[in-house]
Amino acid sequence: MTTRRNTNEDEITDAVDAATVPEPDVLERARMIIVDKLGEWDSLGLDELVESVCEAYEAPSGEPLRVADVNPDAPDTNSPALRNLRYARAARTAVIALIEAGTIVPVAALDEDTALVGEGSRTGTPPATTPTATTQMETTDSAARQAGTDEVLVSVGPLPEGRRFALATS
User: Residue 134 class from Cβ within 10 Å (0-12 exposed, 13-18 middle, 19+ buried)?
Assistant: First the structure.
């Protein structure tokens, strides 16, 4: 049996995107976690909210993606890296839903937010608050070569407007 490897960044991103769609119950729990966290603080950065959701699901960041994770024929959707990406995506999606519902609002970033995050845009290099995963070289060698780099960073899902959020006041 031959396993087809993804060879470009778009194939890798599509495979990760398909494998990280959060279930409705995960999105609901992510919304509850975010509201609870924001009830404890004046405001929190997006990265802190994402990390809170990932910690609740015991899906810490820092694990590299493996070949099996992005195999389009049979992805390992329960790997540590994909679990982290799935719950990070759920957190970002929940933030967007909570903003649309008027439950939370974006607030001005603090000076330390800019220092930690840096500047970035959705069309360029992803900002540091966007959870990313580095795929192992054997998976992304060709894609990295095409991009002129040593590795390819993958982020999936929606990215809310704003870097810091607070509960909406009535």
Answer: middle
Give pTM, 2 decimals. 0.70
pLDDT digits (tens, 9 = 90+) for 26-79: 999 999 999 999 999 999 999 999 999 999 999 888 777 776 677 666 666 678
User: Could you tell me which residue, 144 or 161, shows the higher pLDDT?
Assistant: 161
User: Within the chain, how many helices (H) and strands (E) appear?
Assistant: 6, 5
Domain borders along the chain are 9-167
Cα separations in angstroms, 162 against 8, 28, 94, 115:
30, 21, 14, 15
Q: Are 16 and 70 in contact (CB under 8 A)?
A: yes
CB-count burial class (<10 Å; 0-12, 13-18, 19+) for 95? buried
